[in-house]
């Protein structure tokens, strides 16, 4: 406890596109590291004590809401899940690329995620028979429920999309978050869509065939989703449609 | 069906089904790449016959001219095979070109991403693109010689071409570039299609990487040794 505390220099890429006087610049804040400090704690301390104008998002502080994703020394990650002691004393923070910038570290991932959900139709498409609300719901095999839940852990933080080299070149690419959702609903027995219908949604160069397997998504996912395996699986299923 | 017919009667065009071609092109790109990598493995092993001796190299050359089956060698067979290979490369390159950055904006965006993200597989892809691009120029002259002078393959004519014809420079550049491209490509194929995959987790990427680089280095060693042997023979013939 008595060990000297480290001095941290946190440089933040600041820019407010709504302010005509604002120009993109790096602003460095110095602060003393505390025990168990996360970047989320550090940013709050900066905002409280040094600069109330600094903008960044957070809600849950526990890696569940996905709001605080940002580039941490160039790599996408969640501020609330990143301990400062695992980083050097010089830390650079920048907003997540690929999304609409609100200001400073705050980006509008929600807008992008909503558009993605509508484009990929990421909700259960039931047949008319299943829409009878008086009928008992079919029991689901616990193993299958577990497998669906595994993919449902996605918090839509946007890290995978920011880490995607393909998406950086081609912004219309659906990204790992979208492909993971396709894998999730394809598993779900309540969803009646066939591979024919999945192909209509992701069987293109903006969809599964745009993926160049750079695997940045897999390596940065804060929830450690098995993105590589899921994307490979969807690719195999959709490639098989090309032979049918 | 009846619904569809009613719509057609009413003049509503049928809903277009998504083209199956993106799926086929993706498969063809992967399969041509795999075939070229497999060809390269066999090709370099056969080249290294010179390390056993000139007779072995000559035997390989006559074998592929069809001598054991047809009674005498037909160098045209080698030309034909090289034309087939060139076509395979053309198809593979044309399909792979779709993935290259298409303009300056895409190029800048990707370069900035590589620089800041510092991610191994992302950087590897860029070098896969660079080596692929170099192969347009390095593989073409090699194939042109094989297509136009198929009879000049064997211990003596090959050694003369390598040394006096200064083909050694082309081969010394081609060999590491093609091996890098093939190793990166095979690794990419494995992670792209999910083979081999360990249960539960992702494909064991580190293991696949080690395996492909190990094989590539071994091929680089025997390839360079074979090239050195031809240079040695060529020097002897010239001197």
Order of helices and strands of chain B: HHHHHHHHHH
Number of domains of chain B: 1
> How many β-strand stretches of chain A?
7
Q: Biggest sheet of chain B, open or closed, and with what strands and sense?
A: none
CATH top level of the largest domain in chain A is Mainly Alpha
**Rounded to an integer, what's the Rg of chain B over CA atoms?**
23 Å
Strand portion of chain A = 5-15%
The CATH H-level superfamily of chain B is: Fumarate reductase/succinate dehydrogenase, transmembrane subunit
The helicity of chain B comes to over 70%
Here the CATH topology of chain B equals 3 helical TM bundles of succinate and fumarate reductases
Number of helices of chain A: 9
State the helix count of chain B. 10
Q: Within the CATH hierarchy, at the fold level, what is the topology of the largest domain in chain A?
A: Fumarate Reductase Iron-sulfur Protein, Chain B, domain 2
Shape of chain B: globular
Structural class of chain B: mainly alpha
Q: Could you give a short description of this structure?
A:
The complex is a heterodimer of chains A (244) and B (239). Chain A is of the alpha+beta class and 244 residues long.
Write the layout of secondary structure elements.
The complex is a heterodimer of chains A (about 240) and B (about 240).
Chain A lengths: L6 E8 L10 E8 L6 H11 L19 E4 L2 E4 L11 E5 L5 E4 L2 E3 H12 L21 H11 L6 H4 L2 H5 L5 H13 L7 H8 L13 H5 L6 H17 L1
Parallel strand pairs in A: 1-5
Antiparallel strand pairs in A: 1-2, 3-4, 3-5, 6-7
Helix pairs in contact in A: 3-6, 6-9
Chain B lengths: L1 H8 L11 H27 L6 H11 L2 H4 L4 H23 L6 H14 L2 H29 L6 H9 L3 H27 L11 H34 L1
Helix pairs in contact in B: 2-5, 2-9, 2-10, 5-7, 7-9, 8-10, 9-10
Describe this structure in words.
Chain A contains 9 helices and 7 strands. Chain A has 244 residues and is of the alpha+beta class. Chain A has 2 domains: 7-107, Ubiquitin-like (UB roll) (Roll); 121-243, Alpha-helical ferredoxin (Fumarate Reductase Iron-sulfur Protein, Chain B, domain 2). In chain A, the strands form 2 sheets. Chain A has a 5-stranded mixed sheet. In chain A, a hairpin with a 2-residue loop joins strand 6 and strand 7 (106-108). The longest helix of chain A has 17 residues, at 227-243. Chain A is elongated and about 65 Å long. With 239 residues, chain B is mainly alpha-helical. Chain B has one domain (20-238): Fumarate reductase/succinate dehydrogenase, transmembrane subunit (3 helical TM bundles of succinate and fumarate reductases). Chain B has helices at residues 2-9, 21-47, 54-64, 67-70, 75-97, 104-117, 120-148, 155-163, 167-193, 205-238. The longest helix of chain B has 34 residues, at 205-238. At the A-B interface, helix 5, helix 8 and helix 9 of A face helix 2, helix 6, helix 7 and helix 9 of B.
């Amino acid at each position: 406890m008595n060990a000297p505390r480290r001095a941290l220099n946190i440089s933040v890429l600041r820019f407010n596109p709504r302010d005509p006087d604002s120009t993109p610049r790096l602003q460095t804040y110095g602060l003393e590291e505390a025990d168990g400090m996360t970047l989320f704690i550090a940013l709050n301390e900066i905002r409280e004590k040094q600069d109330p104008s600094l903008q960044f998002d957070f809600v849950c502080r526990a890696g569940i809401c996905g709001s605080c994703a940002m580039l941490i020394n160039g790599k996408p990650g969640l501020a609330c899940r990143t301990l400062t002691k695992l980083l050097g004393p010089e830390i650079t923070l920048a907003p997540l690329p690929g999304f609409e910038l609100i200001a400073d570290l705050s980006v509008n991932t929600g807008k992008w995620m909503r558009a993605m959900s509508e484009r990929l139709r990421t909700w259960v498409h039931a047949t008319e028979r299943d829409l009878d609300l008086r009928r008992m719901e079919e029991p689901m095999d616990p193993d299958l429920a577990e497998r669906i839940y595994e993919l449902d852990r996605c918090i839509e933080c946007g890290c995978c999309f920011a880490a995607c080299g393909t998406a950086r070149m081609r912004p219309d690419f659906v990204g790992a978050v979208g492909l993971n959702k396709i894998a999730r609903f394809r598993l779900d027995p309540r969803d009646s869509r066939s591979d024919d219908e999945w192909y209509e949604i992701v069987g293109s160069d903006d969809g599964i065939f745009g993926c160049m397997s750079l695997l940045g998504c897999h390596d940065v996912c804060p929830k450690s989703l098995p993105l590589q395996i899921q994307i490979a699986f969807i690719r195999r299923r959709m490639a098989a449609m090309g032979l049918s | 069906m009846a619904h569809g017919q009613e719509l057609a009667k009413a003049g509503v065009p049928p809903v277009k089904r998504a083209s199956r071609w993106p799926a086929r092109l993706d498969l063809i790109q992967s399969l041509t790449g795999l075939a070229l990598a497999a060809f390269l493995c066999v090709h370099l092993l056969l080249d290294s016959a010179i390390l056993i001796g000139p007779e072995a190299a000559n035997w390989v050359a006559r074998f592929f001219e069809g001598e054991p089956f047809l009674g005498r060698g037909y160098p045209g067979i080698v030309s034909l095979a090289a034309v087939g290979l060139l076509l395979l490369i053309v198809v593979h390159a044309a399909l792979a070109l779709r993935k290259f950055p298409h303009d300056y904006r895409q190029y800048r965006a990707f370069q900035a991403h590589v620089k800041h993200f510092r991610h191994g597989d992302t950087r590897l892809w860029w070098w896969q693109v660079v080596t692929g691009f170099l192969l347009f120029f390095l593989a073409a002259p090699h194939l042109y010689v094989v297509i136009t002078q198929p009879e000049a393959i064997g211990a003596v004519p090959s050694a003369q071409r390598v040394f006096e014809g200064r083909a050694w420079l082309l081969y010394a550049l081609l060999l590491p570039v093609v091996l890098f491209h093939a190793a990166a490509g095979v690794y990419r194929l494995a992670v792209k299609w999910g083979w081999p995959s360990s249960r539960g987790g992702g494909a064991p990427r580190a293991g696949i990487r080690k395996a492909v680089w190990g094989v590539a280095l071994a091929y680089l060693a025997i390839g360079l040794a074979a090239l050195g042997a031809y240079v040695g023979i060529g020097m002897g013939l010239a001197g």
